[in-house]
Design brief:
Layout lengths: L1 H24 L4 H22 L7 H6 L3 H19 L1 H7 L6 H25 L12
Amino acid sequence: MIIWGVMQGLLVLILIGSIFTVALKSGLPETEVRALSFFSLVASFIGLIFANRSFDASVLKALTRKNVALVFVISAVGLVLGLTVTVPFMAELFRFGPLHFDDLLVVLASGLFVLFALDAAKLILFRTNGPKPIQTD
């Protein structure tokens, strides 16, 4: 399980590092790069949460399984993130620039990439090679 956790961390580190580097090299202002990287990191964390909800179920089942606390937490995170870029005081506090539509697509893609990449890795690592990790549900 330690290797699985390290693999997840490296995946997110490489992904967010790549997003940061490409955004910076493309000439985006530092404030927009900061916002894009942070929002992508949060989206990746949400992808990690859904990827680790179950090792037996498909992605669709993991996404649709009822969990009131998870819905509440993700809603709260979405609200706070929305406020950090739309309320000038909060945007200045975090030094976030505005996120444009293409930036939001990158944020969404980062979360989905983590979710589907880890689901594919689970298929390869855990469904074909013996014992499954311990469930904590």
